[in-house]
Predict the structure.
Amino acid sequence: MRTVNWRARAWVAAVAVVAAAGTSTAAASGAGAAPARPAVSVLSISPPAIAVDTPDASLGIIGKGFVDGMSAKLRGTGAVVTSFDFIDPHVIRIGVAVAPDAHPGPRTLVLRTPDGPAKRCIDCVTIVRQPTATGAQFSQIGQGAQQAGFIIHGTGFDRFVSASSTDGVHVYSAGSVEPKTMFVIVNVSRNAPPGPRDVTIENFNYGHTVCIACVTITPAPRLQSVQPSTIEHGASHVVISLTGSGFQPGMVVRSSQLRVHIESIDVTSDTTATMTVSVDSLALHKASNLILTNPDHGTSKAVFALQVD
């Protein structure tokens, strides 16, 4: 089930500002007769748009002159106000259901008080189409990757679009700067099963879609043997053979000991590579971890893989 709690954060700060302003005005009026109720006005609506085929949208409305017992209506067909919640004179919330065949475009919101004229907020709410996802770029990502990004192409992405996935792929952040492209940044568990993943996309306007097989998880590079596994203190340009799995051209290897310098690495196959290593004269006499990282951000650590004597 989709949650709407995160949407409230987009307008709760504005609620506080408006409420504070109302309190100051009341205090300034003194202890005399209560001031006349201000006319109904709308300052902002969040979200300002709702996607078609949304049965349970919730809109936060900030303004003035709201009273208990008000009602709301959206002009046009296909979008119906299903609930009205009076919070205070500056804040109301309405539920809206939008039909699958609702015509996209602006709608006028009509607010009516029990004892006053209707307030029409012209084109305050916009009905929009559902987003679509047509493909992805840079979406091969390795096991163990941290904050690795890829791009999804499609239509109808809004600024506050969010994303989620499954099976060890955790979305760190997502967003869009234009409706046809969005970015997704993920962290991948070290033991995430290799293979394709769907990505679920949800707009701030309740639009949602699924990008099928949008990202593919690849095996991380794994080190099985190092020959030689011991290197002399102060040695220079020593060639070391690596055997393992998941090696990719462009793989990077680094040592956990800063004074052990990996000068170059040559990946000869997905299971073999050679690297050239020099050891600083100030290096510690101990075993070092080797951290392997592929160009697709897949990474693993071989513990105590290289001994400095």
